[in-house]
Design goal:
By secondary structure, the chain is mostly helical. The chain contains 2 helices and no strands. Helix 1 (2-40) runs antiparallel to helix 2 (45-75).
Length: 83
Amino acid sequence: MENVLGLVALACGLIVGLGAIGASIGIALMGGKFLESSARQPELINELQTKMFILAGLIDAAFLIGVAIALLFAFANPFQLVA
């Protein structure tokens, strides 16, 4: 049983860590492309900014779903065997 709990803790750390790395890289790439496109066509900044904020929210939502799943595994562990 201790082995299962240890592996669940490791999995929770990996879910949160890899999710944070992925979200950070995604937002960084999106921000860079926004700056490129706003420098090329300054008349479209308002439309691009709106779309950028919507995408940033979606990227963060995906990360927070991963955090919620990790919390589910950590506190309401479905892998524990009921005796």
